[in-house]
Design brief:
single chain; alpha/beta; eleven-stranded mixed β-sheet; six-stranded parallel β-sheet; 15 helices
């Protein structure tokens, strides 16, 4: 029995989905049972994927959702509205939804999940996080027996491309960003990527599946790479690290079986060159999952683009189609595939989090300055891994410190004490360290 697909959006990802559905030869036989019934586009005067009939196009996405020939709605429009309203309308009509929209799921995932559970339909979103990397389904199913302790990932290809080139070529941030925009790796307005918002959306979605409960996306501490200096990338390399924009979620405390406290954050991070994430370069993404009893498992591959993202979208469609073919429209939801929330999760107070840190001071090149810095850290209970002095570009010196793991409030107190001495002019840079 053919399953009617309504496609909302025919941009890069939408066109990729259409091409797969229109060319089932050589793919899983179930792909041939997926039939495009209607496609919503902004303009009818546009080029179409080969084999897509102009007759299937319309400019009203609500009409696609309401079309009785459409059994499953694929939302690849992006943005918050009207995507949110269209997803909810499809659910209300009893239709399953597949989306690649990280922004709407990160912000309205609880509302959408509740509506889907009430109607007994699936909302799947594999493509919203890792492009072509399968991560959400493994978290829901293959790793379901594990207690997930930590998830850390490079989940934004634009920033990884920029940081990789800055490290390899010594190129400036502005220069590489311009190249990324020219190559289509970065948007004309790159803020969501370079300021960390895109990665924060994705880690918010991952948290819901890895830990069984949602966190408030707006409360996730988020720092991007726009202010990162090439000097720190070079110093990191000399000290045995590479700099990556990481999104991290880790268990801090289990209060009860149904309540957990998590540390979730996005920030540039010094990664040891021996770490599995250190060798992930260019536009590639990677997500490292640490669980009990599995240990470390890493998912690596292309994190964006028409092919990889469309692959993930169609994989979600196939999951739903397979269940509907076996059980019919009235089949009960698979609790692992649907993955509704089953515990309460909240974010830890950042002042009590514990991290390793890289900090660069601008200081006068005078005796006693390094001793003062070390003494202040010691008085605040901050243990140091290394303290190195580099020659400043101007007068004076730059002093780079890497700490052992320390509580954030103690670290901040030490910085305040250090800056009381006039010879220490400024904290120029402060980054997390694995």
């Amino acid at each position: 029995m053919a399953i009617g697909i309504g496609l909302l959006g025919l941009g890069t990802v939408g066109a990729g989905v259409a091409e797969i559905l229109l060319n089932p030869s050589g793919r899983h036989p179930l792909v041939a049972e997926l039939k495009l019934r209607q496609v919503a586009v902004r303009s009818l005067a546009r080029s179409l994927p080969q084999g897509l009939s102009q007759e299937l196009l319309c400019t009203d996405p609500a009409a696609v959702v309401a079309n009785p020939a459409v059994d499953l709605v694929v939302e690849v429009m992006g943005g918050i509205e009207p995507a949110r309203s269209l997803i909810l309308a499809a659910i209300e009509a009893g239709k399953a939804v597949v989306t690649a929209n990280k922004a709407v799921i990160a912000r309205h995932g609880a509302e959408i999940a509740a509506a889907a559970a009430a109607k007994g339909v699936y909302v799947l979103m594999e493509a919203a996080v890792g492009g072509g990397i399968p991560i959400l389904e493994p978290l829901k199913q293959s790793l379901g027996a594990n207690r997930i302790e930590r998830v850390s990932g490079i989940i934004n290809g634009t920033t990884n491309y920029i940081l990789s080139r800055m490290a390899d070529e010594g190129a400036s941030y502005a220069e590489v960003l311009a190249d990324a925009q020219a190559l289509g790796y970065a948007e004309a307005d790159p803020d969501a990527d370079v300021n960390g918002g895109d990665a924060a959306d994705k880690i918010a979605i991952i948290v819901g599946l890895a830990y069984g409960g949602l966190v408030d996306r707006s409360e996730i501490p988020t720092e991007g790479i726009a202010n990162l200096q090439l000097r720190d990338i070079n110093y990191a390399r000399e000290l045995g690290y590479v700099v990556k924009l990481l999104a991290v979620a880790e268990r801090v405390k289990t209060i009860t079986d149904t309540s957990e406290v998590l540390d979730v954050r996005v920030h540039p991070t010094l990664v040891p060159k021996t770490h599995p994430l250190a060798g992930v370069n260019g536009v590639n993404n990677a997500i490292l999952v640490e669980g009990d009893p599995v240990g470390q498992v890493m998912f690596y591959g292309p994190g964006a683009g028409a092919g990889p993202t469309a692959s993930a979208v169609v994989a979600d469609i196939l999951n739903i189609a397979a269940i509907q073919q076996v059980g019919g429209p009235a089949a009960k939801l698979d609790p692992l595939l649907a993955a509704t929330s089953w515990r309460s999760c909240c974010l830890v107070d950042s002042a009590i989090t514990k991290h390793r840190n890289y900090v660069r001071f601008q200081a006068a090149d005078l005796p006693g300055v390094i001793g003062h810095i070390g003494s202040c850290f010691g008085a605040a209970g901050v243990s140091l891994q290394s303290i190195v002095q580099f020659q400043s570009q101007g007068s004076g010196a730059e002093i780079v410190v890497i700490t052992h793991e320390v509580q954030e409030s103690n670290f901040r107190h030490a910085l305040e004490m250090i800056l009381l001495r006039s010879e220490v002019e400024a904290v120029v840079s402060c980054l997390r360290t694995l």
